[in-house]
Design a protein that fits this description.
- This protein is α/β, with parallel strands linked by helices.
- It has one domain: Ribonuclease Z/Hydroxyacylglutathione hydrolase-like (Metallo-beta-lactamase, Chain A).
- The chain contains seven helices and 14 strands.
- A hairpin with an 8-residue loop joins strand 10 and strand 11.
């Protein structure tokens, strides 16, 4: 059982998590094409779970969101948004086209220079457009950018994300490739850990913030729409490996349901879904 919550800030012990809304608007693919076979009943149940703006003419209306995690002396940014005014901004991303640096300052009170770690859940432009500034330099000058090696390997030579993101970060000495789980930080018995969650892309990763009795999972594009929380076997048309993506969704929901916790995603309309513990 899950329910949406619109509060942008949640805590796990001394760890503070702030959802930062970068943009909201329609996707370039109609909902029926993005999630083939989704019944009207499933779509109605998803609307009840996470109500939001109505989408005319079968459009998929979604959020574009990043998260700021303050844990001990570390400030971790999870994803860098879609709407930034950089060459990485997707042409289809909704506006306004202002840089995420402004958004995190306004919504989380965090300056770009304060960020110590940037976790890119995966290498898609709508999750990485704010990684650089308008000149193409790293937008977070004191941060290490963390990407799974499998996503780096899957990125073709000469692509925009290779030349406009990976190469500038490598040149600045700020890119760290990861192979599997990585513990980033801990404070007061709470850990913040990178966990591979593949399927949407080969190296998709999530940030898991865990205490003995509480859990927040910042899951990027593991769940693209509310209907996948209700029916985790529902495929998304643009997943790299739909079967693996399904297993990942089921595994994350099982982990959340074990003790109860909150799921944060980039594109669901509410910043968090609260998942009740199994009885």
């Amino acid at each position: 059982m899950a329910r949406s919550t619109t509060r942008p800030i949640v805590t796990v012990g001394p760890v503070r998590v702030t959802a930062v809304l970068d943009a909201t608007g329609p996707f370039f693919t109609p909902l029926a094409d993005a999630f083939p076979g989704a019944t009207p009943e499933l779509r109605e149940a998803a609307e009840r779970l996470d109500p939001g703006p109505s989408a005319p003419d079968g459009e998929w209306w979604l959020a574009f969101r990043a998260y700021v995690v303050e844990v001990g002396d570390r400030v971790v940014l999870v994803d860098t948004g879609a709407a930034s005014d950089t060459a990485l901004r997707p042409s289809w991303a909704p506006g306004p086209d202002t840089h995420l640096v402004r958004r995190i300052a306004d919504q989380a009170g965090v300056l770009a220079a304060d960020v110590t770690d940037v976790v890119l859940t995966h290498l898609h432009a709508d999750h990485a457009a704010g990684s650089v500034d308008g000149s193409g330099a790293p937008a977070f000058p004191n941060a290490t950018y963390l990407v799974q090696d499998a996503d780096l390997a899957a990125l073709g030579p000469g692509t925009l994300l290779r030349t406009g993101l990976v190469e500038p970060l490598l040149g600045a000495g700020q890119l760290r490739g990861c192979a599997g789980e990585v513990e980033l930080a801990s404070a007061g018995g709470v850990s913040a850990r990178l966990v591979p969650t593949p399927g949407h892309t080969p190296g998709h990763q999530s940030l898991v913030i865990a205490a003995d009795d509480d859990l927040v999972v910042l899951a990027g594009d593991v769940f693209l729409h509310e209907l996948q929380v209700i029916e985790p076997g529902r495929p998304y048309a643009h997943d790299a490996d739909p079967a693996l993506a399904e297993r990942t969704r089921i595994g994350l929901l099982d982990r959340l349901a074990e003790h109860g916790g909150r799921l944060g995603t980039a594109h669901l309309r509410a910043p968090y879904l609260e998942v009740e513990a199994r009885r």
